[in-house]
Write a structure and sequence with these properties.
Shape: globular
Radius of gyration: 13 Å
Number of helices: 3
Strand content: 25-35%
C-alpha cells in the first residue's frame, strides 16, 4: 500500500465534518470517520481505480456520505488534497495547490 500524505486542510475538513455529523446524531461522526478511513484504504490499495477529474487529480466518492476524496498519485506517495462535500463549491480545493 502506498504512503499517504494529507494536505493539512484536508485533515481539517475531515475533523469538521465528523464534528458536524456527531452533533447531528451521536455516533454518526464516528461512522463518518470510519467510512473515510475505509475509502482511503481502498484508494491506497488501488489508486488507479477512480477516475481523473482535473489534471492528475482523481476523486473517490465516499459511500453513505456526500463527500469525495480528492487525491493524486505521486511517485512514491498518494497526496490527499481535499475531502470535499459534493454539494458545495466543487473547485475550491484548487486554490490550495497554488500555495
Amino acid at each position: 500500500m502506498a504512503k499517504l500524505i494529507y494536505d493539512p486542510l484536508a485533515k481539517v475538513e475531515i475533523k469538521e465534518a465528523a464534528a458536524y455529523y456527531e452533533n447531528c446524531r451521536e455516533g454518526l461522526g464516528k461512522a463518518f470517520l470510519e467510512t473515510i478511513e475505509r475509502n482511503v484504504q481502498k484508494l491506497a490499495e488501488n489508486p488507479l481505480h477512480y477516475r481523473k477529474i482535473r489534471g492528475r487529480f482523481r476523486r473517490c466518492i465516499v459511500n453513505r456520505f456526500p463527500y469525495g476524496i480528492i487525491y493524486s498519485i505521486e511517485s512514491d506517495f498518494i497526496f490527499i488534497a481535499a475531502v470535499m462535500h459534493l454539494h458545495r463549491e466543487p473547485n475550491y480545493w484548487l486554490q490550495r495547490l497554488k500555495k
